[in-house]
Amino acid sequence: MPQESRTITVSLAADPYPVLIGGGLLGDLGFFLLERGIPSGTRVLMVTNPDVEAFHGARALQSLEASGFVVRTLVIEAGEEQKNPATVAAIHDAAFAHRLERSSLIVALGGGVVGDMAGFAAATWLRGIAVVQVPTTLLAMVDAAIGGKTGVNHPGGKNLIGAFHQPKLVLIDPLVLATLPEREFRAGMAEVIKYAVIGDGILFRDLEAAAERDPSGGLASRDALGPVLLQRLLERSAAAKARVVAADEREGGLRAILNYGHTLGHAVENLSGYGTWLHGEAVGLGMLAAGDIAVAMGLWSQADQDRQRRLIAAAGLPMDWPDLDPEAVLVSLQADKKVRQGKVRFVLPTGVGSVTIRDDVDPTTIRAALAVATSIGAP
């Protein structure tokens, strides 16, 4: 029988879909596919990575086959450096070998890289087949798996190749986080903090309370959070993402706020070399720098920036900007996919729970903020 879960609906006009969150749901994956109207006998390509396949692949496969799906598993290497056209081609080759049809399905079982690659491959195979996202990292659970954005990196910048392709279902089982390395968990907490800053003051205060109980690492691991708070932050983060996506599916306006910390974070990833920093670590650094820019522009207070810094520190995330040439950072920003008519758009906080989008950030202000971020560690 299916486990108890919380359902959050991404209320798109054309094709709404559920985000299911609950411990033990991975074993009911096949049941939920049938419930979503995917018939038994459908050909399924399950894309995963070696570690996830070793820990969770057999359980997912058993559930799918028990529900009558015809499944082939493709294991691809994980890591940001694998987000490239060659990986997509490997998935396309497997789709061809498994004879996937327009009624077939790709299941992404893994973190953000697997989700992005499998999602993009699904969007482009036979001009688009269904995809189901089964995230296994905290970052993918709260962000990457929800919303239909898929992206492939280009040597000139992160996620410059991509498509919007909404999943049929997102299934989140927090129990799989037991096998997630702590560094990966901490990286995911950066996205949770992002949601708190951009639009959820209640979540921000919940995180502060956990951090105050253990300032040195109260947000840095699954065990430190505990199952109740973990379930709560998964639900609130997923609900926040669902609201924004429903209001702006293709990032025409409001959805851009989800890029808080990402503009400068992408520059960190690009200039440092993909794989040096985890995506969430780079986003955390980007939020710190964006907060300093907001203080310099009078958009939010130093006190709120200090509150953000304390949360990022309590999550065990990097606190010092890497040794990057500021001029190279400015050049990298111009390659960001959010640039409009040559102007870099920054998501900047105006208070805990609110942000604004600005395209008038002076390069001098950026340089000064990077100098501050480089020189100041945890408070």
TrEMBL record:
It catalyses: 7-phospho-2-dehydro-3-deoxy-D-arabino-heptonate = 3-dehydroquinate + phosphate. NAD(+) binds at G112, V113, V114, G115, D116, T136, T137, K149, K158. Keywords: Amino-acid biosynthesis, Aromatic amino acid biosynthesis, Cobalt, Cytoplasm, Lyase, Metal-binding, NAD, Nucleotide-binding, Zinc. Binds 1 divalent metal cation per subunit. Can use either Co(2+) or Zn(2+). Pathway: Metabolic intermediate biosynthesis; chorismate biosynthesis; chorismate from D-erythrose 4-phosphate and phosphoenolpyruvate: step 2/7. Its EC number is 4.2.3.4. Belongs to the sugar phosphate cyclases superfamily. Dehydroquinate synthase family. Catalyzes the conversion of 3-deoxy-D-arabino-heptulosonate 7-phosphate (DAHP) to dehydroquinate (DHQ). This is 3-dehydroquinate synthase. It comes from Cyanobium gracile UHCC 0139. The lineage of its organism: Bacteria, Bacillati, Cyanobacteriota, Cyanophyceae, Synechococcales. The gene is aroB.
